[in-house]
Design brief:
The chain is mainly β. Helices cover 0% and strands 48% of the residues. It has strands spanning 5-12, 15-23, 39-46, 49-55, 62-63, 70-71, 77-82, 89-95, 111-120, 125-133, 141-147, 155-160, 170-174, 180-186, 191-197, 204-211, 217-225, 228-235, 245-249, 257-260, 275-282, 285-292, 302-307, 309-310, 317-318. The strands form eight sheets. It has a four-stranded antiparallel β-sheet, with no helix packed on it. It has a four-stranded antiparallel β-sheet with strand order 9-10-11-12, with no helix packed on it.
Length: 330
């Protein structure tokens, strides 16, 4: 049985942080004592601060009569900031709903999921991409918003289907040369699309790659290690947990090979009852972020973060459950 409390020792920004009794899978609180409400998260580091962006899932859970998918009234995108990845300050609703415009993607009757933010050094803009969806999940678009500061407010620019393809669960990745990519579940969630972005990160430039064709993967999280590209994802079983997998490629637009389930501890075949959302790089170490969804009460959904362990000889990656981290050292 996995315990609820853990000791986390994180190495970030060259400083060793120690924090006792952070509730793994618990209701994490911000500096004001309120529960952190930022699901399907993405984390961006800017200067010496980390910014956690996630779905606002406050309120009553209901089921859409057409799609039969559980949802809450769309509350926009929340942001929290931290110097140490442990103490989080609420920065507000940085992409707020637009309750007076029923045609807007940001109307409370619509769906905004999996927000990810990257910084464009050339335009000096913070760019957010989201899964923009209708309540019945027939829209399958990507939405884009921009801000001059990491804490917003973000200005919503609209939505579209990247390179004409469906876009649901999605993430962003910026390569070492500054080229950015949007990776999304497409083709009715049967195949992932890797869409290269324009230099301003606001659109697709027309080049894309179909990856993991017909393998029904979602919840993508991309990271790079020793020149290779890795993609953590889940299967497509709605809110129900399933087996994770890691894929690898020599080029982000190259051929991807599935490596198998990295979750090797008890309940690993159900990803410890969670689903991937992001992989945070810390120098040459990585933290995998997961959501534990509670579909009957989505506002009660939880988070847990785990280190990706890499075998130094084989580069094999595993994500064991950790009640206590032994430490991530430089």
């Amino acid at each position: 049985m996995m315990k609820k409390l853990a000791l986390f020792i994180l190495w970030a920004s060259g400083i060793l942080f120690v924090h006792a009794q952070l509730p793994q899978k618990g209701m994490w609180k911000d500096t004001d004592g309120n529960f952190i409400n930022a699901h399907a998260a993405g984390i961006m580091k800017y200067k010496n601060t980390y910014y956690w962006y996630g779905e606002n899932k406050g309120g009553f859970t209901s089921q859409d009569p057409t799609s039969h998918i559980e949802r809450v009234i769309m509350g926009g995108v929340n942001c929290y900031s931290s110097k140490d990845l442990l103490t989080w300050k609420f920065e507000g609703v940085v992409l707020p709903p637009e309750p007076n415009d029923r045609n807007s993607d940001l109307h409370p009757s619509k769906v905004i999921e999996r927000p990810k933010v990257i910084y464009n050094k050339k335009t000096k803009q913070f760019v957010m991409w989201v899964h923009a969806e209708s309540a019945d999940y027939s829209k399958a678009c990507a939405g884009v918003a921009v801000s001059k500061t990491p804490t917003g407010p973000f200005k919503y620019l609209g939505s579209f289907r990247p390179n004409g393809g469906m876009s649901r669960d999605q993430t962003l990745f910026v390569d070492d040369d500054g080229t950015a990519y949007q990776i999304c579940s497409s083709e009715e969630n049967q195949t992932l699309h890797i869409n290269r972005l324009t230099p301003d990160y606001l659109k697709c430039d027309g080049t894309y790659k179909r990856a993991l064709i017909g393998m029904s993967r979602e919840a993508p999280a991309v990271f790079k290690y020793k020149g290779k590209y890795y993609l953590l994802s889940s299967g497509c079983t709605g809110w129900a947990p399933n087996k994770a997998d890691i894929a690898v490629a020599d080029s982000i637009m190259g051929e991807w090979t599935m490596l198998g389930n990295p979750c090797v501890s008890e309940n690993g075949d159900k990803t410890y009852m969670g689903q991937s959302t992001f992989v945070l790089p810390l120098k040459d170490r990585f933290i995998a972020l997961f959501d534990e969804w509670h579909p009957r009460n989505l506002s009660d959904s939880r988070y847990f973060w785990l280190p990706i362990e890499i075998d130094k000889k084989t580069d094999r990656m595993t994500i064991p459950w950790r009640e206590v981290w032994e430490g991530i050292k430089p």
